[in-house]
Amino acid sequence: MRLLAGLMMVAGAAWAAPRFIEEPSVAANPNASVPLAAVVHFAASEAVSTLVEVSDGKNAWTLRYGPEREAGKGLAVVGMRPGRRHEIAVTIVDAKGAKTRAVRKLEWTTPELPKGEGEFPAMRVTVAQRGKMEPGYRLFSPRRSGRDQKFSTSFGMLCMVDGAGEVVWYYRTNSRVSDVQPMRNGNIAFVTQDYRAVEIDLLGNVVQQWYAGRRPAGKTSGAAIDTITFHHELDELPNGNLVVLSSEVRELDNYYTSETDEKAPRQRMKVMGDVLIEFTREGKEVWRWNAFDALDPYRIGYETFDGYWTRRGFPDVKADFSHANGVMYDAADDSYVVNFRMLSNVVKVDRKTKEIKWILGDPKGLKPELQAKAFRLEPKGARWFYHQHAPTPTPWGTFMVFDNSNYRAWPFDKPATPGESYSRAVEYKLDEKRRVAREVWVSEKDPSREEWAYSIAMGDVDPMPKTGNVLVHYGSLMPRTEAARASRARLGEAMEWTRIREYTRGKRVEVVWELVFGEPEGKAKVGWHVYGGELVKEFGR
């Protein structure tokens, strides 16, 4: 009887394991915007989790999908390198942990990367100390440039590489991309040149889209938000809401017409200022904050009159007073941290009261009521950031900024030339009670010619959670020969280049990873730069 009962239990256990009703198959991603991905289909006897093990003979990784993912609709196979044959093994797991592995392994060969100088950036890893690097992939938004504006703005890309610099995933779209954000559900969100916020899955399928309802290009698909732009950046809140940077135009009397001549005649002018909008995933606005109402629109900065918005669909807007380029939600005190490039200030806004909590950056020119909220800088000899990007609270309680270091002055003081400055990542310890910002780390000090880099725009800095390293995207770097002779942070004939670096934060700062694209001397016919990027720990959800 015991033997029979044992046999019945074994048989019952075997029968209880999940079964493939339809064996796994693999096919090309039907969405051509993500060509390195493939799709696995199968049918199981019950709801199952799935392990998709992928190997190219050199690299091996596992994608994990929960029972909510319907295999009949396809599971993404991602992380594959270009021009390589891959083996794929599929295992299903039921709610009790019983596993069944498909008998046959699948095979898939990925296409090569696009050819042509303007089709894909030529990237090269110059440093890779694997034992000191943060584990995971690097996701960023490459942007190309040329003499034709349409050549630049009609090209949008997201790209992900491994530690060796090999491309493991990329996405192509027809509008230039700025910010990119990995979302909590495993999808990716980004902001486009034509004022949309888009959420895609890893196959490139649009999951959801929101757009500025009064944008110059008019209506499109998705949820319309009552505003004129979405620009630069968005952030996802813990409650699932999104916050974006937007804009408003106001006509102001007696406005400046020059940033170099204080005595230039003033006039009535249309001025663009920034607006923060928080909305639900369904597109319902729940919160709004306007920089015109909280800051001083007459406190201008260098490049206020450079025609940024004129080139972006607002031909009669001649001034850009604040130019926000970064926003992030800080759950520690339910606030928003906003970066204003033209003002060379980072501002923290209380989400509940909409009041400014503090201002970080050079306080020159602030009104008295705002001066009281500004930090002073320590130690002696430290210098403020200018035209900065990516304000970021760190997991260890400090605050980081990517300092483009453009001009290093206010109108109508004499600005520093590109050759007199360099860009860097900076870390501060903020004492909010005493209003003291102490500089505690910088990525580089007085760099040599080989290390020197000057970013005219864009850039990003991210603290790495496991190693404590710092990942720095250098934005749009001016060619070194041009920077030596330029008087302003603007490109001439040469094409820009860029680099992404991972630094250690010890007393001895060390570069443990570097990815370079473009030509540092500006001799290429096509320029490449990067808006910013993020760490992705693993694929699959």
Number of continuous helical runs: 5
Roughly how many Å apart are the termini? 46 Å
CATH architecture of the largest domain: 6 Propeller
**CATH C-level category of the largest domain:** Mainly Beta
Approximately what portion of the residues adopt beta-strand conformation?
A: 35-45%
Number of domains: 2
CATH topology name of the largest domain, in short, is Neuraminidase
Q: Residue share in helices?
A: under 10%
The beta-strand count equals 38
CATH-wise, what's the superfamily of the largest domain?
A: TolB, C-terminal domain
Query: What structural category do the secondary elements indicate?
Result: mainly beta
Which parts are unreliable, with pLDDT below 50 for 5 consecutive residues or more? 1-14
Mean pLDDT: 93
Integer-rounded radius of gyration: 25 Å
Could you give a short account of the major beta sheet? 5 strands, antiparallel
Please tell me what the overall shape is. globular
